[in-house]
Design a protein that fits this description.
Strands 2, 3, 5, 6 and 7 form a 5-stranded antiparallel sheet that branches. The chain folds into 2 domains: about 1-30; about 50-150, Immunoglobulin-like (Sandwich), CATH 2.60.40. Helices cover about 15% and strands about 45% of the residues. The protein contains 1 helix and 9 strands. With about 150 residues, it is of the alpha+beta class.
Length: about 150
């Protein structure tokens, strides 16, 4: 009976090690449930079926300073990301229902701006234009930035 115990222990150790290796391999190839919580303001590509519940924001930064873009909805302000000077960028944000939204632009080493409020729908695209100097906008005020509703 003493010779059976070491074999039994060895077999048990082999089975347990195999189970650990298999579970580790399966866990490393699995996907997290709910997605990455830090992807909210990312310009990374998304699956096409996700675009119906998102608002797409195209940014044209004609200013020479880097711009940090914020989306402002009733009761919340969310950082979308940055767009380098004299370049374009694109952001996506989750949008379940129609909503009023405006954008705040914080320019590095310069005065920022706040757009007018626009009503947006899920799946829609808006365009945010940041100019290098203030000019009259659709609301009659001089500003560096303007938001335009897309399709």
């Amino acid at each position: 009976m003493t010779s059976f115990a070491p074999r039994h222990r060895l077999a048990l150790a082999v089975v347990l090690c195999s189970a650990v290796i298999v579970s580790t391999a399966c866990a490393s190839t699995g996907r997290a449930i709910g997605g990455d919580p830090f992807q909210g303001g990312s310009s990374s590509p998304r699956r096409s079926n996700d675009s119906a519940g998102e608002l797409r924001i195209q940014v044209r930064n004609s200013n020479f300073n880097e711009a940090t873009i914020y989306a402002i909805r009733l009761g919340s302000r969310r950082r979308l990301g940055r767009v380098q000077g004299a370049s374009d960028g694109e952001f996506r944000m989750r949008l379940v229902n129609s909503d009023q939204i405006q954008f705040e632009v914080d320019l590095l080493a310069s005065q920022g701006c706040l757009t007018r409020r626009v009503v947006v729908d899920p799946g829609q695209t808006v365009r945010l234009v940041i100019d290098s100097s203030s000019r009259p906008r659709s609301n009659g005020l001089n500003s560096l930035c303007e938001v335009q509703r897309g399709r």
